[in-house]
Amino acid sequence: MEKSIETDPAYYDLGRNDYVDSDFASETTSLSSSVYRGVFENGRRYQTVREGASWCPSDEQQFESLEAGHLLCVLLDANTDNPLFHAPVKSPKQILDIGTGRGTWAIDVSDMFPNATVRGVDLFPPPVNWLPPNCTMEVDDILQEWTWHHPFDLIHMRQLIGAFTPVEWDGLFKQCYKNLSPGGWIEQIEGDPRIHCSDSSMSTDSSMVQFTEAVFRAGQNWNHPLDTLDTMRAAMEKAGFVDIQEKTYRWPVGPWARDPTMKEAGRLHYHQWTAGMEGWGLYLLTKFGVPRPWTKEEVLVLLARVRKELQDPHVHMWQYARRVWGRKPTQEEVEGKVKREAVVKDSEM
Ligand SMILES: C[S@@+](CC[C@H](N)C(=O)[O-])C[C@H]1O[C@@H](n2cnc3c(N)ncnc32)[C@H](O)[C@@H]1O
């Protein structure tokens, strides 16, 4: 009798609820298949590299939100020399994008600098079919020891809000410092989850305010604070970066602004919100919600109200975002500093 074609048991796990608790514990699932398959929880797909490493779903819906976020960032810097980054890096050879998500920033930077090698790294494989020849995507946990053998000229991070504890952030900035070439640059851009309104069109107890505050508190409760845009500059300074500069943005939610660029920004940010908010809320609130973890239904009910408010053209909501970039001192600067410190010590003796 002819041998039948063997079935792949993993294929049948692709249902959305049936391997929620088993995947991380499984001793028989190979790492590679699990990495591509992800793990489903509350109907959303998450990475499997390190259990609980990220609140961010890695699925089509969240990638759509990330794409809108990418376009939003590019649009608001479209009138600058380089809408992809502001660090004055002219002919980079090695670039790293930490937490690359869908990988769009890394791909665009590869096109901009065809002589550079651009690496995107994330816990989940970016959903790309084609990459520029100078771009590579790697699946890894950035908190593990780095195994790249060359220094980078630019390390970039975007929307890594709440990805790490304060201690992990300090460690990550140290790693970045160590792995940059002298004179190399680090750059980070983050949005603020807190919501603002400059007129009285948003009530202080709106569902939008309730949602953003609840998510913010959940981040604190998890010790993964969501105020990354307020803390990243000091963290860079602490790691030793110099020449730190920053630029603050306002992201309108919805196309209510008069200025045509801000109107378009509002459209993109609205899209970022509608595609992204379930992913922003589900993990954090069902695991770390205050005063107790929320049920999935509680999250979805609040989000339904938020969606209604988002659709109201008379509510003028906006959020802050900030870009910060800094330089690793050159060898001469480091040596000069050591000498100056030695002179001060001698004069104190
Ligand atoms: C909100 S997304 C931003 C993606 C992308 N930077 C962008 O702006 O479109 C955050 C990304 O960071 C990744 N991430 C979180 N913790 C990570 C870690 N420890 N190592 C590598 N990637 C991580 C997540 O998997 C997710 O794709």
TrEMBL record:
Signal sequence range: none
InterPro entries: SAM-dependent_MTases_sf
CDD domains per the UniProt record, alphabetical: AdoMet_MTases
Name recorded for this polypeptide: S-adenosyl-L-methionine-dependent methyltransferase
Gene3D superfamilies for this protein: Vaccinia Virus protein VP39
Transmembrane stretches, start-end: none
GO molecular function: methyltransferase activity
